[in-house]
Amino acid sequence: MELRSKLPWVGTTIFTQMSQLAAEHQAINLSQGFPDFPASPLLLDELNRQVAAGNNQYAPMSGVAILRQQIAALTARCYGRLVDADTEITVTSGATEALFVAIQAVVRPGDEVIVFDPAYDSYQPAVELAGGKTIHIQLAAPEYQIDWQAVHRRVTDQTRLIIVNSPHNPTGMVFSATDWRALADLVQQHGLFCISDEVYEHMVFDGAAQLSAHQQTALLDRTFVVSSFGKTFHVTGWKLGYCIAPANLSLEFRKIHQYVIFSSFTPAQFAIAAVLQQRPQLIAELAGFYQQKRDQFARLLQSSAFKLLPCKGTYFQLADYSAISTLNDVEFCHWLTVEHGVAAIPLSVFSRQEQDSKIIRFCFAKQPATLEQAAERLCRLNP
């Protein structure tokens, strides 16, 4: 019997490839988006305490009650939105699971889903597994702003869902209040569903307001908002996130979630709930923490031949290497890792139509010494 792949164009992700290449060549890994520093000792102590207390069995399918209550409190603090912890919040095994489940909940065969390139690579496979078609709208460097009138023109009778991501991976672009209002108008005018991927929501820099789909009344009854504790608490390996959606959408979301994962890492749910209750300021401090790292990395690369693009949020920095090499970005990242000991991600892998833009992505969620060592190597590259 011949197996016909449902995703014949999908291979091993570039993130896995580059991390493996970095390990093979003992390169500094600024490619895959994970911190190289420990989480808060308070959180780690809480996890140990919860394990010792016996909280190691299946959690409720929607997440432990105390964590959902703390998520509701966090959402109220950050955005002024009151959500029902029982019917509108679902804890998931990472944000990627939440994105997958939300897509399966609303996309039917033949439906069109609008995404903006460069885009996180999990969107399109999930849409295709649901029988949908991904409509890619390319954003342009250096600002990667959305032309909302152009988006209106791309909507058809088959368009069912739009996926947005702010702060944006990989570009570091952040939606303005005008962007959020334009999105709300689009969704309302065309009767679309929306997934708002907000996993970097607490990493907005330079004193800008932390804005969200949660604050748009016109979006609330048609939107899944996806968040990540892994990103927020520097524990990406715990794979813990959550989705907030109105009760009717959450009901459909949970029908699928229960057969994908059923429940997520129980002791971590209790540990994060305890920290949210005891030290809510940890989240408030996150933007300043990562802004310092962004600024340090930029200072260290001032004398390099790289041209840094604007970074208004996330923990990623785009860099133009056109003054250094004529290699395409995939070849350049391979060369940079093997020959110069620094791993990065080529920007073209985030777009449906590969572009030879000579731009790569660095992750600056690293210890100061790691960034210093990486920058020293990068500054040796001459035009």
From TrEMBL:
Keywords: Aminotransferase, Pyridoxal phosphate, Transferase
Keyword Transferase: yes
Molecular functions (GO terms): kynurenine-oxoglutarate transaminase activity; pyridoxal phosphate binding
One GO term describing the cellular component: cytoplasm
Cofactor(s) the protein needs: pyridoxal 5'-phosphate
Domain called Aminotransferase class I/classII large: residue spans: 27-378
UniProt-listed InterPro entries: Aminotransferase_I/II_large, Kynurenine-oxoglutarate_AT, PyrdxlP-dep_Trfase, PyrdxlP-dep_Trfase_major, PyrdxlP-dep_Trfase_small
One Pfam family hit: Aminotran_1_2
The keyword Nucleotide-binding appears for this protein: no
Database matches in SUPFAM superfamilies: PLP-dependent transferases (SSF53383)
Family membership noted in the UniProt record: Belongs to the class-I pyridoxal-phosphate-dependent aminotransferase family.
Annotated protein name in UniProt: Aminotransferase class I/II-fold pyridoxal phosphate-dependent enzyme
Native source species: Rheinheimera riviphila
